[in-house]
Amino acid sequence: ERRVAGAGRAGFAMSARRRGSKRIVEDAPSTADAHEDARTDSAAREDGAPSQGMRLRTFEIDADTVEYRVCRSTRYALTSSMAPLCLLVSVCLVGAISLGEGIPEPAALGRALLLTLRGSGGSLPFVAWLILGAVASLALAIASAASAVVSESVLVMRDVGVQLSVRTMLSRSPRSVRFIDAETIVSVLVNEAVTTSDVFFYLCFVTRGRVGDARGGADRRPSGDGDVEGSKPRCRDGVVLVFPSLRPPLSVISRVYAEVHVALFGSVLPGETSERTGGRGTGKTRARCQTSAGSNPARGGSRGWEWEADPATGVPAGPATGRGWWDRGFTWGVPGPRWRADDAMSPAHSVLLVSDFFLPNLGGVELHMYSLAQRLIARGHKVTVLTHAYGDRCGVRHMTNGLKVYYVPRVPVYNGATLPDIFGHSDLLRLILLRERVTVVHSHQAFAVMGHQACFHARTMGYKCVFTDHSLFGFSDASHIHMNKLLVLTLADCNHVVCVSHTAKENTVLRSGVPPQRVSVIPNAVDAVRFVPDPAKRGLRMDGNKAEPGRITVAVTARLAYRKGVHLLAGVIPLACERFPQVDFLIAGDGSMRPHLEEMTKSNGLTERVTLLGNVPHARVSDVLQRAHVFLNCSLTESFCIAILEAACCGCLVVATGVGGVPEVLPPDLLYLAKPNPAALVDALNDAIEALEAGGDSTGGFPKREGSTEGRRAAVDPVAIHERVADMYSWDDVAERVERVYERAHATEDSLVGRLVRLSRCGTFAGPLFACVAAVDYVFWRWCEWWRPARTVEPAPDFVPDDADFVLVEEE
Q1: Which run of H or E residues covers position 236?
Q2: Distance in angstroms (rounded) separating the CA atoms of residues 88 and 572
Q3: Which of 59, 66, 222, 799 is most deeply buried (CB count within 10 A of its CB)?
Q4: What are the residue ranges in the chain where pLDDT is below 50?
Q5: Which secondary-structure segment (H or E) carries 135?
């Protein structure tokens, strides 16, 4: 019977035989003293990594039992706890007591305290409160010092399990925290977590089993009296953290991970060199990832993103020195020496995309950021996204092609935007910038509070910032006035601005006063591989039945909100159904005005001709558009509508309101514009239907008419429409133009004084106020550099694909 040994009998448990192995493991000594004699110290601080006052020690008990212990000095453990602060408070209170009029007698103090507790009208003197505060602070200091963690260890027992232990200042020997049976361990992972104030790596065991059963599941907490009787076992997956209190650096975590992986699963990682697989070697050991994420195939074999080193000192320039990216000059436009997009040997960028709006939320901004990130990664750049948490999606996630997303635990308060906190998350942003070795900060959407704050704090540290505005704003509404003033301050501080249409550029220049030469127009694009016409689905109902020949399906994909013109859509549908008996409507989307559409459908008896699909995942939007002949967009304002491109790429003719930048999206033979009123939209819909019938679209069941020319048929042919749209819009072209924008941003040089002067000129009151806030932010940044220097922040490794792991590489 396999059982878990106590603290002094770890070797006895290892007398079990590994399944499938012919090697018999001899019993190790059964006493703790014998174990200590058998242990040998074999590891120290890793290759130049920040030690953080810690070191890794490896103890080999026998051939199949190894302990990995992370230790830190007593002084570091005390200074990292709350003991010094509590002791300082206690000393201050004692000093205040000594300066008082006198200390009351103990008997009088006891009586006053007793009367106060009884509520009999007695009151403690002020000196008594100081004495109680000093005693409480001293007690907290002692308790904090006693509970300070000195070391944490993981004892790996092959074919049995692992045992986690911790030793505090009060305990002389390690105290067992948890035992995990080997049968419940699925894998060992190195992951990254983000909190409201810090980012750190952690090592964990992923477990699967029955909690509370006889095997000792992953979430089973050992106790001195055994398990509680009557507890019902239940099945669930779990994650058990290793070294949760000390949080050692990545170099230590990756080494423990590599060796524990071999000990538990018996598989040697590619490129591993360790004592358990043939000797450690004498060179320095460092952790790295086997990945191609840092390669640059589109840039002719670039060196990848890196920080340029100072030739004199060899120290990387930029934020690694704690001085930021500040250069010479007081004005924009001074040529700089870095990052040329037309130079194949120019280092690639490490881009941080910031916004309150990102996946899993669906919208134009979210899809734009995701698509742009994927194309930049394909072109050899490193891309990281910073956004707020969405429900239980909080922490660090890796998406397709290694796109790293920080879901920071911030709560949206209005319309998906978070609450401004000015300095609340500036240090967390600084850590992310340092860990990801960011060279460009790219914020999206004027409504995104996180985007504005990221630009503000990044510019304080001297980073190059680019801002993309996706929306159109007015000038009379109170909310728009306040947003425009904030945009003035942000864009005055950014190195370059991007708009998605020429109309949006004019609107942004008028609202913010930014010079037009610092604003570039880069439109959105569409994924022509995903959005393709499908003749087999064209005219097919959602229930799978084929519609009658000659019927026309009009699709609508939008958020059902007022800004999307849902009230116009509710007026268009009855008029169109009355005028065109062959037309059916297919509406995908959800929102606050969906009940308005449902009521309209029922009151007009159109439930058979109008289908409300509700919220449709973006992966299935193409399936909806492939069934339609015409796409209808009733938005009241649009800077650039990606939904129009997606519909046209699926072979649909587009009927839309001629607002904002919509007229710039497609040529006139594919886009039928109308004024934002129901009657005009119905007339434009009539023109699109006549074009379909005149062109004789055979895929939609329309017979070829006499007199219909090849030009008319090509104008409505879904495949021809798809090819035209795919030639006009490409995310590769967008990514290349964004690279040019990054080059222009790095070609500007600025100074802290020039920034303060520029901000002070942004308004009579708001300008000096934000200049003062920027000065305070600079002082706070310098304090953060003193408290946690940039050189001690370890860089995050590149993305590790599913078929690769951390490996230990020997350096000569």
Answers
A1: strand 234-242
A2: 72
A3: 66
A4: 1-50, 211-235, 269-308, 310, 313-341, 703, 705-709, 802-812
A5: helix 126-146
